Amino acid sequence: MPRTNIDDLAAFIAIVREGNFTKAAGKLGVTPSALSHTMRGLEERLGVRLLARTTRSVTPTPAGERLRDTLEPMLERIDEELSSLSQFRDRPSGKVRLTASEHPIDTILMPVVCRLLVTHPDIEVELVVDYGLTDIVSERFDAGIRLGDVVAKDMIAVPIGPDMRSVVVGSPEYLERNGRPETPQDLTSHRCINLRLPTHGGLYAWEFERDGRELRVRVEGQLTVNSIAPMMPAVLGGVGLAYLPMDRVSGQLESGELVQVLDEWTPPYAGYFLYYPSRRQPTPAFTVLVDALRHRTRRDADTRLG
């Protein structure tokens, strides 16, 4: 049997992952027709059908599933070994892929990443905004960023920011028309701006705590968004109450544009952690980024959760 090019095998894996020739071709930087020709040639050389094609999707055949299960860890190992060779360069190089929601990207990642890219011209960083609980292993991210209480148990977690606090705020005009909620339960009679979580498809339940008592309240209102960015103009415009990170509203609270309510029910909580699989060998570029992001506090130690 003729020897198979490793690029053809990598192309096969890309097609299986994307479930679509067009998407896989975009990832690989080739045309869909060229990718289809490559797969036909691979199947002819192997003498087996690897992919079942329909007008809408592409799925692996039983033979394709077996090849995928064998190839994926091998190709990942090759990628890791090739990346590790950068340690022999005079300066760190390589690409780092991270996923996080908008808030940590805006407040923590971007200031650090911008400085890092200027001082390390051979490092590339890709940031993907995602409010879902992305599986960083299957989606081939080097790391993700989440609050400490939602990091998977088998991950290494590094604190990258201080403790946080989320607060309930409203415009003076809204509170004058509708009154102030005195307890979290009062929110059920108020108009609130909801946040939809893509992973579960449901609405985020606002979280409260007082004297060791924890509450989650599902609120209702006229506006639902899937990002916290649109909440600010909405709450400033009197659409309803919003539950936002304190650092996003501190300026408006000082100016009087917004008013905080339920203050005693919103204590601080653990901030953001960068997390990554314990079994993955960090590349020099990733190590440089982690060290730059690490939050220098008394908690400054890698924490293996679990």
Tell me briefly what this model is.
One of its GO terms (biological process) is DNA-templated transcription. With 306 residues, the chain is of the alpha+beta class.
Explain this structure to me?
This is LysR family transcriptional regulator. One of its GO terms (molecular function) is DNA-binding transcription factor activity. Residues 4-61 form the HTH lysR-type domain. Belongs to the LysR transcriptional regulatory family. It holds the Pfam family HTH_1. The chain is an alpha+beta fold and 306 residues long. The chain has three domains: 6-85, Winged helix-like DNA-binding domain superfamily/Winged helix DNA-binding domain (Arc Repressor Mutant, subunit A, Orthogonal Bundle); 91-155 and 271-304, 3-Layer(aba) Sandwich (D-Maltodextrin-Binding Protein, domain 2), CATH 3.40.190.10; 166-265, D-Maltodextrin-Binding Protein, domain 2 (3-Layer(aba) Sandwich), CATH 3.40.190.290. Helix content is 36%, strand content 23%. The chain contains nine helices and 15 strands. It has helices at residues 6-18, 21-28, 32-46, 62-84, 102-119, 172-178, 231-236, 246-255, 284-293; strands at 51-53, 58-60, 94-100, 123-129, 143-147, 155-159, 166-170, 191-195, 206-210, 213-217, 220-225, 242-245, 259-261, 272-277, 303-304. The strands form five sheets. It has a six-stranded mixed sheet, with helices on one face. A three-stranded antiparallel sheet has the order 12-7-13. A two-stranded antiparallel sheet has the order 1-2. Strand 1 (51-53) and strand 2 (58-60) form a beta hairpin. Helix 1 (6-18) packs across helix 4, helix 2 (21-28) packs across helix 3 (32-46) and helix 5 crosses helix 9 (284-293). It is elongated. It starts with 5 loop residues before the first helix and ends with a strand. The relative contact order is 0.15. Mean pLDDT is 87; it is low at 297-306.
